[in-house]
Design goal:
Length: 235
């Protein structure tokens, strides 16, 4: 059984119960500013989630002059309202138990770092590292490499937990383990994309998945081409 040294947790939809709010916020802006239908807008946001919103908008509307204003409105609303939301049930206890087992627990987000640090600190969640977005330092390989250097781990003993296909793709690109968190994406969809990876519906399932009570640690996501189809880093 491989030992997991570093566990990196996605923030929105994995640690914090914020995705319904963010989806409706983004969908509202896409309807209002670009004329999308509501369901089309929800799907457009969900299909690109896992990226910073500024990058999502450039995927949806490349080079559109409205994008900067849309991103500003999205970020301003988050700063005003994110404090109304909370961690998923059991997150504090699960993270505490993982850290007691010697695993370094990190949070990685496409949100601006100060917003995530404030959210986590206000809710009494103790982790070993918080990483947010800034130009040149994004969720994915940048964050994974930083965490591995900080804690002396490598791809074989580092695992990412996320709730989107983009999250799994980032883990695959970095050749680290991945655990899918259901919610926006079903377990079937995760496995269709990445093979027989572990999938959880709550972080409380992680101690079992990570082998703290027996089973082996998560495998790396398979390359689809081979299948049939806490201190912050700025401190």
């Amino acid at each position: 059984m491989k030992v997991v040294k570093v566990l990196v947790l996605d923030f929105d939809g994995t640690v914090a119960d914020t995705m319904p709010y963010l989806t409706e916020l983004a969908a509202g802006l896409l309807v209002e500013r670009y004329g999308m239908g509501r369901e089309e807008a929800r799907k457009a946001y969900s299909d690109t989630t896992g990226l910073p919103f500024v990058q999502q908008m450039e995927i949806l509307y490349p080079g559109d002059e409205r994008n900067a204003g849309t991103v500003d409105l999205f970020e301003a609303d988050k700063r005003e309202k994110m404090g109304r939301f909370d961690l998923f049930p059991g997150v504090r206890d699960t993270v505490a138990s993982l850290r007691r087992a010697g695993i370094k627990v990190c949070v990685s987000s496409g949100n601006f770092e100060d917003l995530i640090v404030d959210f986590i600190e206000r809710r009494g969640l103790e982790v070993d590292l918080v990483m947010g977005f800034r130009p040149g330092f994004e969720k994915g390989r940048d964050h994974f490499d930083f965490a591995m250097r900080r804690f002396g781990s490598g791809p074989a003993d580092t695992v990412f937990v996320g709730d989107s296909i983009k999250d799994g793709q980032r883990a695959r690109e970095a050749d680290i383990g991945f655990v899918g968190m259901t919610g926006m994406v079903t377990g079937e969809k995760f496995r269709e994309e990445f093979g027989q990876i572990p999938v959880v519906s709550a972080l409380a399932e992680l101690p079992h998945i990570l082998g703290l009570d027996g089973p082996a640690a998560p495998a790396r996501p398979e390359d689809s081409t081979n299948r049939a189809e806490g201190r912050r880093p700025s401190e």
